[in-house]
Specification:
329 residues, alpha+beta, Aminopeptidase
């Protein structure tokens, strides 16, 4: 353990016993920040099983002198053969934020990324997502010479007045529910997003992690199939039951939507999107949300706006290029 100031001590993640404490801290911060991002132990358990998160080396916790958790941080490192891009996610108790704790968290995250950079022999970049309403966090990122690289919109749509879902001739909708479809689905996913910003090739391990989500439902995991059997487009929707219980709302999410190269601009994306929305409505949802890259070259934002979505939130991705750690670090 390493003391970071006169009050706080850092330590590694201890496994299941820490999930309750992390959930409690996260929800305490949510009460103050009002970002619509509460959590619980089951949700964290799924999150911490993601292959992009090294729980042993890339999670750190900060305790006060009485052993109370006051901060934690994660570093997510997607598969990438060209650079180490670490997404730093953290929560700091509101009473400790003015003490410089958030800067200490980011210092740790960037030092870990420098170490990973040296280990892999690749350049590194730190990334932090901040909502445009979080003015103090934006000021912190700017003070660290982090710059806005990308913007993401969370979009929202009422499900009362859905138009009919129409697919181009020759395409059918089917559900994905088991591992037998993995190779075909992953191939479709990678060819759908290969030309997107910051694409990281999907692996079977990570796809299986998504499929194993306790909230996952085959009837909301849809693929459009061409006459020759090719998986041509997909709409992976979901309902976060715990989130809806926290908010008292009936919100469904379009987690993933994509169209394979060679099958675009024929109405396939709109058709499978509307099919997914209709299934969310049939499941009792009255609102749908999704996230989209604001600068998508495929015109995704226009597609969603044409389908009745409007912008609800804006998130800013701040980044900074990092030098590798020295051997002595």
């Amino acid at each position: 353990m390493t003391t970071v100031d006169t009050r706080l001590v850092t330590r590694q993640f201890r496994g299941e016993e820490d999930l309750v404490r992390i959930a409690d801290l996260w929800n305490l911060c949510e009460e103050v920040d009002q970002l619509g991002q509460g959590t619980n132990v089951n949700e964290l358990r799924v999150e911490f099983s993601d292959p992009w998160l090294d729980k042993d080396r890339n999670v750190l916790l900060w305790d006060d002198a009485e052993g109370n958790l006051v901060a934690f941080a994660q570093i997510w490192t997607p598969n990438n053969d060209e650079r180490v891009e670490g997404r730093i996610v953290y929560q700091a108790h509101p009473e400790y934020r003015s003490s410089g704790l958030e800067a200490q968290i980011l210092d740790w995250g960037e030092q870990r990324l420098r170490e990973i950079s040296r280990e892999r022999g690749l350049p590194a970049k730190s990334t932090v997502a901040v909502r445009d309403t979080q003015l103090s966090q934006i000021a912190l990122m700017e003070s660290r010479d982090m710059t806005p690289e990308r913007y993401t919109f969370v979009m929202i749509r009422d499900l009362d007045d859905l138009p009919p879902a129409e697919l181009p001739a020759g395409f059918t909708i089917r559900e994905i529910g088991d591992e037998a479809d993995g190779e075909a689905w992953i191939g479709m996913y990678n060819l759908s997003f290969i030309d997107h910003y910051n694409h990281h090739p999907l692996t079977f391990e990570r796809w299986k992690n998504w499929l194993d989500d306790p909230d996952g439902r085959a009837d909301l995991n849809l693929v459009a199939v061409a006459e020759d059997g090719t998986f041509a487009a997909f709409c992976w929707a979901g309902i976060n039951t715990a989130e809806n219980e926290r908010t008292g709302e009936n919100v469904g999410w379009i987690h993933l939507l994509g169209t394979r190269r060679g099958y675009r601009r024929i109405g396939l994306g709109r058709g499978i999107l509307l099919t997914g929305l209709q299934r969310l409505k049939a499941s009792g949802m009255n609102t749908a949300k999704l996230g989209v890259d604001a600068q998508s070259l495929t015109g995704a934002t226009r597609l969603y706006e044409a389908a009745g979505f409007t912008r609800d939130e804006t998130w800013i991705k701040f980044t900074r290029n990092l030098e590798p750690a020295t051997e002595q670090a």
